[in-house]
Specification:
The complex is a heterodimer of chains A (about 525) and B (about 425). Helices cover about 55% and strands about 5% of the residues of chain A. With about 525 residues, chain A is mainly alpha-helical. Chain A has a domain of about 170 residues. In chain A, the strands form four sheets. A two-stranded antiparallel sheet of chain A has the order 1-2. Chain A has a two-stranded antiparallel sheet with strand order 3-4. Chain A has a two-stranded antiparallel ribbon with strand order 5-6. In chain A, helix 21 crosses helix 24. The radius of gyration of chain A is 25 Å and the shape is globular. Chain B folds into two domains: about 80 residues, no CATH class; about 325 residues, Alkaline Phosphatase, subunit A, CATH 3.40.720. In chain B, strands 1, 4, 5, 6, 7, 8, 11, 12 and 13 form a nine-stranded mixed sheet that branches. A two-stranded antiparallel ribbon of chain B has the order 2-3. Chain B has a two-stranded antiparallel sheet with strand order 9-10. In chain B, strand 14 and strand 15 form a beta hairpin. The longest helix of chain B is centred in the last third of the chain and has 25 residues. Classes of the chains: A mainly alpha (about 525), B alpha/beta (about 425). At the A-B interface, helix 16, helix 19, helix 23, helix 24 and helix 25 of A face helix 6, helix 7 and helix 8 of B.
């Protein structure tokens, strides 16, 4: 027996190695053929509606929007927003070889069908749903929750259904993963009803009423009583040996801050009580109310968040700080929201609408804009905003830039092994914004230091037989190809004439032995450029 | 070190990059000044988790809520503190004890926000911490290292909020050791080539994007990083050259090393330093965790006070020891104390503040009443801002177009003297 046990770890290690080698070697990549356009009913009509909305706003403000961005640049944005990484050289070659009409529409679909999309996007959504904290040991399984989200993104489960599961499901956090929405709010073996109420309103209604926990909202219509009434919907939930359960005999009590007396709070909603169903547990009732088709806040909140994940900041900022829906008026969020509702609350469709809209395809270049004008243009989405990439996008891009082939589902074991060791530290050092990641922020010194001098960058920019700097410097037939390939790999574009001249001069000035150093330095510079670490 | 680059290299590299920035001369005289002539600095000892007032600065031994702790006399007349702090009992006469802090925030994150900024969490904007305000309002020429620094493993290190991420504290998670990522892994030739490349790349990218590109502060961050990498002042982060007896006095703990580094940073002219000590959240076995944390805090805090006094830095350095809240008078069934934002303590002094005062009083027999002479955090911060010569109620425009005062409080005149 002891002998067998001693062999076990070695066998496991060997197995993992074989798997990694297998995955990287025989990777059957996604079909190289041009992706077919799946018919999406009414999509062009909605996109036209969105475009009309912006064109009217630009005309009214007398703004000249930026030109359309180059397709490669748009493709880079899509890849960063939906896969968390820049496109690989392999993908770029396929993209450029595809000369059929509606290339971007088809490639958006291809990205959405890529299994990396589920992994990446479920994590982004999870942040608004269960936060980034570890939560209470044993009863909170964040991994189960994100896996569940991922599977349902792939199955195109209507989002309103998912939300109802999160709010109302009963059972174990392992076998009924949606219940982690509830168990994420446990602390010291007790459910935090306030946290659940605040988070539900932020994540599903796009509004912040957390301050109403203690006092009336300073300018919106939320009262402290509204908050407590919503919290009371979570007042009967607790853990049991069979998981998250509701105990219908329990009253929800809150201490009156003045009298210190315990008061029973009955559940109540701040508006439209007629949307509440007559039956069901408290949580089931709330779930139906939040996702009621007439509830504009739900669809507007979702539209604003997806817009935020695509652009890096919400259409309205902060992403969960929406005002009450405008009376008697429709704005962009209503257009997107109605389309979302009318098409089975399909998140992937919502993404497609935004990706095909005019603002998403505008250039970040606007030759006539000075500092004041640029703010105005940005406010109306008439120029594409420069937004700092989030830490996971930076590390995803650095890892992808270090290799020529796509790091995709087939290599994700290797990919995840690297990430396992590196991502957490990197993200922490780079400054993870956690739940509030969709805001505009400038670059910081620690980030610059990390990109310039960290071991990670060192590993990935020093030429080896398998990484991009090594392969590009050894396999390029001439200097021009070498430079162009490096630019495509790191910046998803071709170099300008002055850039070609600059690097050609450098390469030609060096002996053969020094050439790989020049390429390594070129890579370092590409990865440290503003262009690399800001979505543009 | 193999690839260390010196100041002259940086200058030549910068020239190669076409940068029109010159390293400001080190204002040695400013850093060498002593006493009240010197620029003021702030050191916050952040007690993360919320320490119990009863087992630190406000013991009530032998009373209903007193717990196991006993009290000891201090060098401040009439002031007794928990017996877990014998070294601080010898140092506290240069500080003041406030025993009546009151906030309305009993959650760690919200309480931290409240006590670090002086404002309750607001869903529409993020207020800056006190340290970030000082750093922003009082820029320092000649300091090449960050002027706002957070030492230790803090969950919510001091932040710039609406003043901008560039005013976030520079974080050093494990103080006393070499800083990460501070050295280029290439030789001078490569480094020069890289910076030259960057300027070529920047020219290409910025065409038509100048206004947006400028706002990113990307190249400023690189310049500041280069400046920092080559700065002599980096030595302030290292404690290897301190004598063994000094290091020993601060204690062999992350927090102790942090306090020593904090003193060195202040000496170098850094404006605000936050040192975090975790582990105060004693919902169970309150006494045990307070005993073990006191064994870390007492020597570190006392050595810091002693050091600042001996180096004549105390007149110019405000020291504040505070956490997000205190702990309940009642002891729960797990022998723990829970969160208590009503009547908790802090210790504050130095920088020209008066000393030897005890402000406020908590009731040893009743957990319901508010303390006498309650002190609000905004008032405490208005006091510090005024001491630093900053208009404490100055309104700044936030990015959402809402003007916001640095502090909504009023200075506590007793402390200012």
């Amino acid at each position: 027996m002891p002998k067998r046990i001693r062999w076990l770890p070695i066998a496991v290690a060997l197995g993992v190695m074989l798997l990694v080698i297998g995955a990287t070697r025989t990777a059957p990549r996604q079909s190289n053929q041009t992706p077919e356009l799946e018919a999406v009913p009414d999509l062009p009509e909605t996109v036209a509606q969105v475009d009309k909305f912006f064109e009217a706003a630009w005309a009214e403000q007398n703004l000249q929007p930026a030109d359309r961005a180059p397709e490669l640049q748009i493709y880079r944005r899509l890849s960063l927003a939906l896969l968390g990484t820049i496109p690989s050289l392999e993908e770029l070659r396929q993209f450029e070889a595809d000369q059929q009409p509606q290339r971007l529409e088809r490639w958006t679909q291809r990205i959405l069908n890529d299994s990396r999309f589920g992994y990446y996007f479920s994590e982004r959504l999870a942040r608004s749903l269960v936060g980034t904290e570890g939560g209470q040991f044993l009863i909170f399984r964040r991994d189960r929750f994100t896996n569940w989200l991922r599977e349902n993104l792939q199955l195109r489960t209507p989002y309103d259904q998912l939300v109802r599961h999160m709010i109302a499901d009963v059972g174990l956090w392992t076998s009924v993963p949606a219940t982690n929405f509830i168990s994420s709010a446990f602390a010291n073996d007790d459910v935090d009803e306030n946290k659940l109420a605040g988070r539900s309103v932020r994540a599903f209604l796009g509004q912040r009423i957390d301050c109403a926990q203690c006092h009336d909202h300073p300018f919106d219509h939320w009262k402290q009583a509204d908050f407590q009434g919503l919290a009371a919907y979570f007042g009967q939930v607790n853990t049991s040996p069979v998981g998250i359960q509701d105990f219908s005999n329990v009253d929800y009590k809150v201490e009156n801050r003045k009298t210190k007396a315990q008061e029973i709070i009955t559940p109540s909603v701040p508006f439209h009580p007629e949307w509440l169903p007559k039956t069901g547990s408290r949580r089931e009732q709330l779930a139906v109310w939040i996702t009621h088709p007439a509830n504009r806040r739900f669809e507007r909140a979702t539209a604003n968040r997806i817009w935020g994940l695509m652009f890096g900041k919400g259409y309205f900022d902060p992403v969960d700080g929406l005002s009450d829906p405008p009376e008697g008026k429709t704005d962009l969020l209503d257009i997107l929201g109605a389309d979302f509702r009318q098409h089975d609350y399909d998140l992937r469709r919502l993404i497609q609408v935004i990706a095909a809209s005019k603002p998403y395809r505008l250039d970040s270049i606007h030759p006539t804009a000075d500092e004041n004008q640029v703010e105005e243009l940005k406010a109306q989405w008439a120029v594409f905003p420069l937004i700092r990439l989030r830490p996971e996008q930076i590390i995803g891009s650095i890892l992808q830039a270090s290799t020529l082939a796509t790091i995709d589902q087939n290599s994700h074991l290797l990919f995840r092994t690297i990430r396992f060791f590196r991502e957490n530290d990197f993200v922490k050092e780079y400054g993870d914004l956690g739940e509030n990641e969709l805001t505009e922020q400038p670059g910081t010194i620690p980030q610059a230091l990390l990109r310039m001098n960290s071991e990670l960058i060192r590993d990935l920019t020093e030429a080896s037989a398998v990484n991009s700097p090594g392969r590009i410097s050894s396999m390029s037939p001439n200097d021009a190809t070498c430079i162009e390939t490096a630019y495509l790999v790191a910046l998803t574009r071709r170099p300008t004439a002055p850039e070609i001249a600059h690097f050609t001069k450098q390469l030609q000035a060096e002996h053969k032995g020094e050439r790989s150093n020049v390429v390594e330095d070129m890579f370092w510079s590409l990865c440290n450029s503003l262009e690399f670490s800001w979505n543009h | 070190m193999l690839n260390e680059i010196n100041r002259r290299d940086v200058l030549s590299l910068a020239a190669a990059w076409g940068l029109s920035f010159a390293l400001p001369p080190m204002d040695l005289r400013a850093a060498q000044k002593r006493g009240s002539e010197r620029v003021k600095s702030l050191i916050i000892l952040w007690m993360a988790g919320g320490p119990s007032q009863l087992e630190t600065w406000d013991p009530h031994p032998g009373t209903k809520f007193g717990g196991e702790v006993t009290a000891i006399k201090t060098k401040t007349k009439g002031l007794e503190i928990a017996d877990l702090y014998p070294l601080m009992a010898e140092q506290i006469q240069d500080l003041n004890v406030v025993r009546s802090l009151v906030t309305k925030e009993g959650d760690h994150e919200r309480g931290t926000y409240m006590v670090k900024t002086g404002y309750r969490p607001d869903p529409t904007l993020r207020h800056p911490t006190l340290g970030a305000i000082l750093e922003t309002e009082l820029p320092l020429a000649g300091v090449e290292i960050p002027r706002h620094i957070a030492l230790g493993d803090s969950q919510w290190p001091s932040w710039g909020g609406f003043l901008g991420a560039e005013h976030d504290a520079f974080k050093v998670y494990n103080p006393g050791y070499d800083l990460h990522n501070m050295q280029s892994f290439r030789d001078k030739k490569s480094q020069a080539r890289r910076l030259e490349n960057l300027s070529v790349l920047e020219n290409a990218f910025q065409a038509g994007r100048q206004a947006q590109a400028k706002k990113t502060l990307h190249s400023d961050a690189i310049k500041r990083a280069l400046q920092m990498m080559s700065s002599e002042q980096l030595k302030a982060f290292k404690i290897q050259n301190e004598s063994e007896s000094t290091r020993k006095a601060y204690g062999d703990s992350q927090f102790g090393r942090g306090c020593l580094v904090a003193r060195r940073l202040v000496e170098e002219g850094v404006r605000s330093v936050e040192v975090t000590l975790n582990g105060w959240d004693s919902h169970a076995r309150n006494m045990e965790s307070h005993r073990s944390n006191a064994a870390i805090l007492d020597p570190a805090f006392a050595a810091l006070m002693n050091d600042l006094r001996q180096r004549d830095l105390l007149q110019s350095t405000v020291v504040l020891c505070i956490g997000e809240f205190g702990r309940t008078p009642q002891i729960n069934p797990l022998q723990g104390r829970d969160h208590w934002p009503t009547g908790f303590s802090c210790v504050i002094g130095g920088g020209g503040l008066k000393s030897g005062m005890v402000i406020g009083q908590t009731d040893p027999e009743s957990a319901k009443t508010e303390p006498s002479d309650p002190i609000l955090v905004p008032d405490l911060y208005a006091t510090i801002l005024k001491l630093f010569g900053i208009e404490y109620n100055k309104e700044v425009m936030t990015p959402i177009g809402r003007p916001m005062a640095y502090s909504s409080g009023k200075p506590i005149s007793r402390l200012l003297g």
